[in-house]
Amino acid sequence: MNISSQIRKYRNQLEYSQEELAHKLYVSRQTISNWENGHSYPDIQTLLMLSVLFDVSLDTLVKGDIEIMKTEISGQNKNMNRWAWVMVLSYFGASVLVGPILNFMNIWWMILPGIIMAVATYAAHKVEQIKKIYNLDTYEKIVAFSEGRSTEKLRAGKSWKDIMSLVGVPAAFILIMLISSYVFSLI
């Protein structure tokens, strides 16, 4: 990413130390170091503060990075979608298996849905790991801002997704499990 070299270049032009720049942006010196070394990426609010502080446009500050971000978002969204499907199908498979196991098999067969749930949990972990490693949340906000779209819509969509993942997924799992148990008890 070019932002690391841009931050270093403009910081040196203004003769700021990392400590001084960190103080002006209300972040730690280590954060500035991480940005300059490409280990992390500033969020959209910090980028706006940097553009004002350095007296350059946001486009100048992140030039070249927007296309890289779009490519990164596209590629990693595909990867996340694969893991999300593994997670959903694993949850569904485990919940459907509970009915036949409870009605027709030894209780020790409950280990099988447990293993499948472990796969689903691993897939969920991979999705979160991809988001964190590739800064996808930050990148999506920066790209949205650069295209003139509202970043507030991204935040609002996130809270809805969080609620659905915390409430909707377990509720669906329990509902499918109960339906499966009922249907297989009729057989």
From TrEMBL:
GO terms for molecular function: DNA binding. Pfam families: HTH_3. Keywords: DNA-binding, Membrane, Transmembrane, Transmembrane helix. CDD domains: HTH_XRE. InterPro entries: Cro/C1-type_HTH, Lambda_DNA-bd_dom_sf. It comes from the Bacteria. The chain crosses the membrane at residues 83-101, 107-124, 163-184. SUPFAM superfamilies: lambda repressor-like DNA-binding domains (SSF47413). PROSITE patterns: HTH_CROC1. Residues 7-61 form the HTH cro/C1-type domain. This is DNA-binding transcriptional regulator, XRE-family HTH domain. It comes from Salinicoccus halodurans.
